[in-house]
Each structure stands twice: as C-alpha cells, then as structure tokens.
Amino acid sequence: xxxxxxxxxxxxxxxxxxxVDEPTAGLDPGERVHFRNILLELLxxxxxxxxxxxxxxxxxxxxxxxxxxxxxxxxxxxxxNLIQQVEGRIWLTKEKPETSDAIxxxxxVPLDGAIAYRVCSSDPPTxxxxxxxxxxxxxxxxxxxxxxx
Length: 149
What we know:
- This protein is α+β, with helices and mostly antiparallel strands.
- The chain folds into 2 domains: 2-62, P-loop containing nucleotide triphosphate hydrolases (Rossmann fold, 3-Layer(aba) Sandwich); 84-146, no CATH class.
- Helices cover 32% and strands 30% of the residues.
- It contains 5 helices and 8 strands.
C-alpha cells in the first residue's frame, strides 16, 4: 500500500519521468504482479526508469534494458536481444562441469529427481549436456561474467 501511495504522490506533479528503485522487493507474488501492472499502465504517459535486481520484473515490464557493472554501461538494447546473445549456449547437465572463462555454471535445478546444472558454454560442457532455452537471467549472468576481469 505504501508503494502505491508513493507512486500516486510522485504522479501529482505530472512528471515526464518516474524513477523506481526495487519497487517489488519484499512483496508477495500477488502484490508484485499488481504493482508491475501499475508500472505498465504508467508507460503510456511517462518514461519509467526501473532499478532492480529482480530479473522477472525486467522481463515483464521493460522494452529497453541497460546493464551496468562497476559504473559502466555494458549493454543497452532490448531484453530479447540480450537473450539472443546466449542462444544455443545454455545447457542442462547432471554432471557438474569445471568452471572457466568459457564455462559458467549459472544455477542448480531439479531434474528427474536429481540436481542438474544450468550452464552457459559455446560447446557441450559435459557428454550428457542437453541444449535448453535461455532465459533473461541466463543472459544477464553470462554477460556480467564475460565482462568481469
């Protein structure tokens, strides 16, 4: 409720820009969806700048994405174009591969009653690896990894 009130107060002056920082952090799933819908309604009349670490919010709200790391703009394009950068590079494997500059273990996921590893790599990271559909989270994590010293 406080967040909705904050948006209402911010809109009183009819601003061109609305800047929100982590707007859905700590909200239950229903409230998150409701608040994202409020932000989407603002897009017709306002430029909304969303600062968040919640990738699902970016995926649901943003048409334009800027990825910053250590104060530098690394990417400025659509979320879909970021995802396309890892197309054909996201694998599921039951064997945990060794990480390197060319192989990033993104996460662990349940698969057939066991733990599998979601991996970004140009080539199959293990003999049992299966190519899978990339997500915005996969793309973001690989992008930051590939731009880190």
